Amino acid sequence: MKNLLFFFLAFAFFCSAESFSQVKRQAENKPFMLKGEVIDGETNMPIAKVNVEILGGQYTTTNLSGRFAISAKIGDELVIKSDDFLTVYYTVAKNDFITVRVEKALGQPAPSVSRSSQDNKQNSFSVYLDSAKYFLKRDAQKSIEYVTRALEPGRNKTISNKENSQAFETLGDINLFWNQPDLAVDNYKRSIQNLSNTDVSIKLAKAFAQNKNYQESISAFQNLLKANLSAYQKVEVHEGLGDTYKAIGDGVKSVFNYQKALDAAKENSITPKITNLNSKIGEAYAESGALSEAEVYFDNSLKLAKKENKQRAVSEKNKVADFYNQNREYEKEIQLREETLEELNTMGKGATVEDEALTSQRQNYKIANAFVAQEKYKQAIPYLEKSIAEADIREDLVVQKDATRKLSEIYRDIGEFDKATESYQRYVEVVDELYVKKEQEISQAARFTKEITLKQNRIVSLENDRKLNESRYKLAFENQELIERNSKIQKWVIISLAIIVLLLFFAAYTQYKNVKQQKFANNVLALKSLRSQMNPHFIFNALNSVNSFIAVNDERAANKYLTDFSLLMRSVLENSEEDFISLEKEIELLELYVKLEHFRFKDKFDYRFSVDKNINLNEFVIPPMLLQPYVENAVWHGLRYKEEKGLLEINFRKIDSKTVKITILDNGIGRAKSEEFKTENQKKQKSKGMGNTQKRIAILNEMYKDKIVVKVENVFENNEGTKVELILKKD
């Protein structure tokens, strides 16, 4: 009795301690919204539609700005994946904005192309490939070995595009079946490189999804919808899209594509697909919480599955039973699982069942869980005992572990502590045994992966060898052609020499002209260089204004300023590649700039634009951003330091039909006084905007014969105020 009491207290303490530590861990590690961006490591440009996933958790994609937000916890592993770059794994250490730089994946070399074909070679290739397909689901290594033999070079043996495509398609099928989707993607791509094939493209899209490259999968399926598809292919593509959207949690698009696939399957009487799609639509509705709609489709799938083979019917009953469990309709669940058990028994032990859930030990365990959920512990015990016994016979340690622990908990809850202790001890033994088995499986899986990778590399090596041999043959052929070509070249040498003499005379004649054109080109290049310096200088000054609003926490002013600034930037960038723009565009740009500066210094100055109505603004052209530095100087070095409110006037007057005078007039403190306000550092530096503008005008006048004349002078006798006069000629 004392031992029993001690066990009960120890067991209760163990459970309470475990619960307490779990609650503590949960409290310390609450989920938060992790934000970040994905950019190209070389160009620093954002990358859109990148797969972002918390390992074993949520999934999202980057937006057009390369940014994402996903629920995460400290210690979670973030996986950033795309077909265009190497997969990145990032461990979440803190709640902070992260920037992920990615490197582009190296492209795979294209398979070699062979054209000759013989009957004995074709027969051996087909035999080896058929053997590979036979062993595909039985022995992966043997299956890949047969593909290798099919591709091995031999005497008088070459491989055609079609055969290369078939071989790599088979390799992709092997990889996909044995859960190596990354290799499957690579091999399906190689198959398509040799010969475009819609069925292989569908397989590639499915492999993308299985490899969690969901965006690439969606894009591949959507491109396939634009192709000329057969009825069955159309069903497969919509079904694949539904599977992918379901995997990323988009229930609406998932159901939409499943429904389109179902409609096409019904229209073309593709019976197996009709059953599967009813089941998948039911699952999609169930996951999104639409239980009544899910039940309708599950009822349809049950009825249709009964008309097919027993294994299909059993599989569907198991899915519907899981749905009833989710919906807490335990009586219906138990009834379906009882029927499943009966049909599994009638199928016999020799029947092959790929789904682990369709085993008698698993079904007994789930029936017991349904009884436990209703607190019918006595009814659950026999099913757990059956589950444990059958799991022991079939060496299913996972089910045996779960069932043994559940049995121990039931005995504890109903007060049979001896049996609870006995079951718990057995549970510990099974856990130890399972741990050893899992270690062995991990070791075997590592060896299996290594061997498959080596065989894959062997096939790639065969492709490279074949490509090298073909290159040697091509080189020998080209050498022969070169010898023949040399004989012809000798005949043309004398003629060529004569032509060269004539060309020398022509070159001497054109040299003078080229020098002149080169000088003109150098001037154009200098203008472009100066213009490229103007835009960063202008942007930097404008952003300083934005920064000042942010510094004083004037968010509304900053937002309004940024809106107008974006319009100005758009105009600046649109004109940045033009040597000249119309005077009308320059005035529009200048008005927008002055509006922004007035918004910044509205208490310092007013402004007034005056444009002569007689000027045809579209007939006159002007280099972009030529007037802005003069206006900027007037505001920043004249009006900004004035104690009372100043005035800025910008006038455009027509002198004659070919000449316009532009006047920029301010009543600021003047150039001399502005020089006194400068710091020592500012005095050492010359204004880049004004300096570049003067250089541009000098070059333009040299190229176009005094097209622009500029004069700067003081307005008042006390050296205050500044007037800039600029004469612009039409031609």
From TrEMBL:
GO cellular component term of the entry, any: membrane
GO MF terms held by the record: phosphorelay sensor kinase activity
Residue ranges the record marks as coiled coil: 313-347
The protein, known as: Tetratricopeptide repeat protein
Pfam families, sorted: His_kinase, TPR_16
Species this chain originates from: Aequorivita lipolytica
Signal peptide extent: 1-17
Keywords: Coiled coil, Membrane, Signal, Transmembrane, Transmembrane helix
Domain Signal transduction histidine kinase internal region positions: 527-605
Gene3D superfamilies given in the database record: Histidine kinase-like ATPase, C-terminal domain, Tetratricopeptide repeat domain
Keyword Flavoprotein attributed: no
